[in-house]
Design a protein that fits this description.
heterodimer, A: about 260 residues, mainly alpha, 11 helices, globular, B: about 240 residues, alpha/beta, about 35% helix, about 25% strand
Amino acid sequence: MIKILKYSFFDLIRSRWSLIYFIFYLLLALVLLFLNNDISKAIITMMNVIIILGPLIGIIFGIMYYYNSLEFTELLLAQPKKRSSIFLGQFFGLALSLSFSLVLGLGIPFVFYGLFQSGEIWNFVSLLWIGFILTFIFTGVAFFIALANQNRIKGFGMAILFWLFMAVIYDGIFLLLLVWFKEYPLDTFALLSSVLNPIDLSRVMILLKLDISALMGYTGAVFKNFFGSGMGMLSSISILVLWAVVPILAIVRKAKRKDF
Amino acid sequence: MIKLNNLNKKFGKLEVLKDLNLEIRKGSINAILGPNGSGKTTLIKCLLGMVIPDSGSIEINDKEVKGQWLYRDEIDYMPQIANFPPNLKVKEIISMIKDIRNRDARDEELIEYFGLKPFLNKQLSNLSGGTKQKVNIVLAFMFDNPLLILDEPTSGLDPVALLKLKELIAKEIERGKTILFTTHIIRLVEELAEEIVFLLEGKTYYQGPVAGLLEKHDAKDLEHAIADIFSTHVKETAE
């Protein structure tokens, strides 16, 4: 697996798209830092970008990479290697190369701006961690969808729909339900539904980390209560990790039975 | 060397292999022929473990291969379409495959033979189709394994490279390798193959020397014999 990961990573890191993705983060972080003059605000804006863009890029790159390298994958399948190590190698190669663009693109401007002197270092680390885990989750889901669909158009469509659902539609349904059932106590429901969607969960975690949950009113207090406790933090991190692990297991399972 | 027993494979409703039986002797040169959709590629992919048969057994060197992967270390395979990671260099892709197999290879000899030296430091996305195919050949032949599987080996090659490939295959034949190849080019079959495996609708229709097939169909050359098979086959299904 490591060998395939290594070469996939080198292939991807040299691609034009990795460079564009890196430059995008680099420019955005630079602009935000020097216009805002406030690391904390820059982190919040960055968060809003990352939790939407990270998953989208993960989904699109995952689908495109799988389909584009299918013929080469067939050549790899004829080598004395286990199937799971081939697909996991490619998946980690892609997820790591995207994370690499993210870390460098954000890291360079923030470090130059004086991140280490600012006391915001842990907030920045959480931002990176969220970017990381979202990239892994959505790249994994994209890989699984691609493996499950021979038809490229269908695969691409399903992957985009999955992203759209998680990033946009889910929140819409969530808000509608809140409005419809406003007579009932909804804080447990609100908590549960935010925890189940990795994008929402990431957003809530960062908001709480930055201590601006007061903006969220009573629900914010409930959230703070939950996430502030060791148990709440642990369970939300576990859910994110679970979200990342399940697609990987699904990839392994699917790859074992598939005909190429 | 290779033994296939009652191999069945369905893709959805399409039955591609139907109770296919086949035995390939060690050291024999086999051309796998058949109309489109007769199961040639599926057969090869079953041997390599890329397609998992619904039932039946595949033995290579007296070992069942289902669910195994290490047996592939003794097989050299050349796929029909050469498509490589676009941003790797030629020398990197060669070292990648060497790395995966973790074995010595005669890559330098083959690079020299196909004149690929000037391309070693070029990215694979910048190569022409023919040059990619040459890289494909190097990757397939460099481990010097006893079993060679070639899927349409001549596609996309210029005449000079084609000649070189034929010479290379001829050398491998002399060295006693077992070779399986598919092609639509009848000349190549006549020049190289000792035996023909003719597939029709997922079954072995004929296996044996070229002469036997000519006799069976009372034809003067292979082209006519194949045309005869095609026409009788079409008649049969039309009835």
